[in-house]
Design a protein that fits this description.
Elements (H helix, E strand, L loop, with lengths): L2 H9 L5 H5 L11 H8 L8 H29 L2 H14 L1 H10 L3 H16 L21 H7 L7 E4 L3 E4 H13 L10 H19 L1 H8 L5 H17 L13 H5 L7 H5 L1 H4 L1 H4 L1 H8 L6 H5 L1 H7 L5 H9 L4 H15 L1
Helix pairs in contact: 1-10, 4-10, 5-10, 6-7, 8-9, 8-12
Length: about 350
């Protein structure tokens, strides 16, 4: 009986990375310099940043030397369908907590769907080993008492990083405690109850740690400040979940700015219109040549007059400043059309 809190506190920390990235999405791996500086600055949501950073460094050392290697051993011992079945069973055991918070939040449809999901997976899915509800249109949803408090108007409070728990806030940390009391397995007496509780806690932490590894690498591998990046992702996710949206980490991408200028593709459009533009320079030439037969020197000076203003940027080096100027699309198109005409 006394072993369960020990195992729960030690190995549930393997699940901490599942809070933020939970894998929702492909997260950008780079940030613009200004955004990095803003993220690295002291956040008003993190008044204990100095202490939190120290705890974050300590946790990373423990994770790299103990939790992550243990999670990888677990993955090697549970390959393919075996690991998938264990993953489904662990999620099925957490469904009562999700249902309880759906009820507290007044989500009638979600409550009915999660209840049907629990019954279907527990019976037809053989104790939750097979997820039959998701293909039937009832995918799993995450919900917890921290979200319930947020929907009731409770502020998140200061950001905290708790070793073996991970990124959290005062509100979410209190919610985790309440979620532990909402687990019906704590109140049902049956043979093997303690073994089931300890096993589900340990295996659940290892499963969540290993399943979130790829998302964590995508988010933190190239981050200039991993602590600030993880904090930003976590707080954004939790705010989105309180609003009833899926948690989606949104980080600025350095590639967003450069790719916006070539996407204009202005030279491509005028190149299609070159057949209409080519007669314009050639039409004045026959008129200007007979207009001054007695003055051959005047004809060459009159002919380059209109073409000189059009062929000014025919050199590619002269067009580069125009390409960098997003306010001159017409000049870019005119330069491309003139260059095509001269080339013909």
């Amino acid at each position: 009986m006394r072993l369960r809190p020990l195992f729960a506190s030690v190995l549930a920390g393997a699940a901490f990375f599942g809070h933020g990235a939970a894998a929702q999405t492909p997260a950008p791996t780079t940030a613009a310099p200004a955004d990095i500086q803003a993220a690295s600055a002291t956040s008003p949501d993190d008044p204990y940043e100095r202490l939190n950073r120290q705890l974050y460094a300590s946790h990373n050392g423990l994770d790299q030397t103990f939790l992550l290697p243990l999670a990888r051993v677990y993955r090697a011992l549970t390959p393919g369908l075996i690991g998938k079945a264990i993953h489904n069973m662990v999620q099925n055991l957490s469904e009562p907590v999700v249902i309880g918070n759906d009820i507290l939040q007044g989500r009638v449809f979600d409550t009915a769907q999660e209840t049907w999901r629990l019954i279907a997976n527990s019976t037809v899915g053989i104790g939750g080993m097979i997820d039959v509800a998701t293909p039937a249109g009832a995918p799993r949803r995450d919900n917890d008492f921290g979200i319930t408090l947020g929907r009731l108007g409770a502020p998140p409070g200061p950001y905290l990083f708790v070793p073996l728990v991970g990124p959290t806030t005062v509100r979410d940390l209190a919610g985790q405690v309440v979620d532990g009391f909402m687990n019906p397995l704590n109140y049902i007496r049956f043979p093997g109850r303690t073994t089931l509780l300890v096993t589900s806690t340990v295996v659940g932490g290892l499963d969540l740690r290993i399943s979130s590894e790829s998302n964590l690498q995508a988010i933190l591998s190239d981050a200039a400040d991993p602590y600030a990046t993880l904090r930003s992702v976590y707080l954004q996710n939790r705010a989105a979940q309180v609003e009833g949206e899926p948690g989606t980490p949104v980080l600025p991408n350095l590639d967003d700015e450069p790719t916006a200028t070539p996407s204009d593709a202005a030279p491509a459009a005028p190149s299609d219109a070159t057949p209409a533009a080519t007669p314009a320079p050639t039409a004045p030439d026959p008129q200007s040549a007979p207009a001054s037969p007695s003055a051959p020197a005047a004809a060459p000076t009159a002919a380059p007059g209109p073409s000189s203003s059009l062929t000014l940027p025919e050199d590619e080096a002269a067009m580069e400043p125009m390409l960098d100027d997003p306010t001159a699309p017409a000049a870019i198109g005119l330069a491309a059309a003139t260059q095509t005409t001269n080339g013909g």
